[in-house]
Amino acid sequence: MIPSPEPSPVYYIIGDNKVVYSLGRVITDRPGFHSPDYLFPAGFKSSAILPSFVQPNTKVEYYQEVVDTGGPGPVFRITPADSVTSAVEDATSSTGAWVKMLQLISGGNSSEAPHTPDGPLLFGFREPEIRSLIEQLPGATECEGYLFNNAHHICVPQSLQNTVHEITDQTLFEHHLSWMTTNAPAPLPEPEPAPPGPVPTPHPHPHPH
């Protein structure tokens, strides 16, 4: 098993199956790092929590990363947490990387592979709140051709829309992640009970009149 990404000052939990570990940094001088619809910051790291193809009936993180190799555009990399040798890369798109991963999962049998995956959705680029956070990174306004606030052109079906939770506590994040990778979600830890206050002094009952 490969190690988890290094501890982050803030984690973004997307619904119950995605995590953004790092927003990365915007590359302004190479057009492949952005399109009219998306910014692809170098060092962007996220994970999608999906069934493992190594251990049946378990869920694992598929680590996703936007890698800067010095070329005109990024490389999109996906690495299953329980199979470091099964990492795939694609220099065309995040969807292309997921197509390769699903082909690997299906053993190269295209007839068994599911429909074409939505790479931007799996990476987290289509989430409006994540998109907004990326747009606030230094250099974002210098990306020629990128359309800010273009969410109406990137329609996410209602059934796929998620709530994004920002978590800064490492222990709370690890707890949250542990139940996301199980088949049945568990509640977050209950807050510590308040210490008991002073015991009031009982008053004697008045005599009946």
Walk me through what this model shows.
This protein has about 210 residues and is of the alpha+beta class. It has 4 helices and 7 strands, in the order ββββββαααβα. The chain has helices spanning about 95-105, 120-125, 130-135, 170-180; strands spanning about 10-15, 20, 45-50, 60-65, 75-80, 90, 165. Strands 6-5-4-3-2-1-7 form a 7-stranded antiparallel β-sheet, with helices on both faces. A hairpin with a 7-residue loop joins strand 3 (about 45-50) and strand 4. The longest helix has 12 residues, at about 95-105. It starts with 10 loop residues before the first strand and ends in a 29-residue tail after the last helix. About 25% of the residues are buried.
Name the overall outline.
globular
N→C terminal distance: 79 Å
Mean pLDDT across residues: 78
Question: How is the main sheet built?
Answer: 7 strands, antiparallel
Keywords:
7-stranded antiparallel beta sheet, alpha+beta, 209 residues
Short description:
The chain has 209 residues and is an alpha+beta fold. Helices cover 17% and strands 18% of the residues.
Walk me through the topology.
Blueprint: E1 11-14, E2 18-22, E3 45-51, E4 59-67, E5 75-80, E6 88-90, H1 94-105, H2 119-123, H3 128-135, E7 164-167, H4 170-180
Antiparallel strand pairs: 1-2, 1-7, 2-3, 3-4, 4-5, 5-6
